[in-house]
UniProtKB/TrEMBL annotation:
Keyword Calcium: no
Record organism: uncultured Rubrobacteraceae bacterium
Protein name (database record): DUF2231 domain-containing protein
Entry keyword set: Membrane, Transmembrane, Transmembrane helix
Signal peptide positions on this chain: none
Length: 152
């Protein structure tokens, strides 16, 4: 148990601890915007989840970059990691862009959340996020990256 709290072990687990936040929060944010209609409390919750989910995507990107450093010298593992990495950059850029766009619209007392262009871009973001998460899961379960475990 005491080995768990070493700095190295915490760094190794940081990506696994952070990457589910953007997946959960951003999916719920977009779903709430799609169903909110004229209910302002759902619209505000969607905005809050967008902000938290985008911060989570930034945290997952930073911890992911740290996690992949150990595999930099292996071209085969690096080739497996790169599609996940670049889609993660795309995910983070899309939702950061949406957050800035929405923040600017809210400052003018309107809310772009729930408009057709916003939802269209958000849906593309969710698709990219979904594939990012799927490929991340493959890194662990298919490639065994970051795993010291047992398979039966
Ligand atoms: C939006 C950002 C990101 C999301 C949502 C994300 C999501 C995931 C998910 C779901 C996994 C499966 C592992 C698990 O269940 O914990 C994973 C693993 C992994 N990801 Fe990411 N990721 C992101 C960014 C990145 C970036 C930028 C890199 C840099 C190369 C990266 C590198 C890795 C690596 C090396 C693994 C396997 C080892 C480990 O989990 O530490 N990820 N990621």
């Amino acid at each position: 148990m005491s080995d768990f709290f070493t700095f190295e072990n915490m760094i190794n687990h940081a990506h696994g601890a952070t990457n589910h936040f953007p997946i959960a929060l951003l999916f719920v944010s977009v779903i709430l915007d799609a169903v909110a209609g004229k209910r302002p409390y759902l619209r505000s919750t969607a905005w809050l989840l967008l902000v938290l989910g985008t911060l989570g995507a930034i945290a997952a990107t930073v911890t992911g970059l740290v996690a992949h450093l150990a595999y930099e010298d292996d071209p085969i593992l690096l080739a497996a990691i790169e599609p996940h990495q670049f889609l993660a950059f795309g995910t983070t850029a899309i939702f950061a862009g949406l957050a800035v766009w929405r923040w600017r619209s809210l400052r003018r007392s309107s809310d772009v959340g729930g408009t057709l262009p916003y939802l269209a871009i958000a849906l593309v973001g969710l698709a990219v996020l979904g594939v990012t998460g799927f490929l991340g899961g493959n890194l662990v379960s298919e490639w065994g990256i970051g795993v010291s475990g047992v398979t039966r």
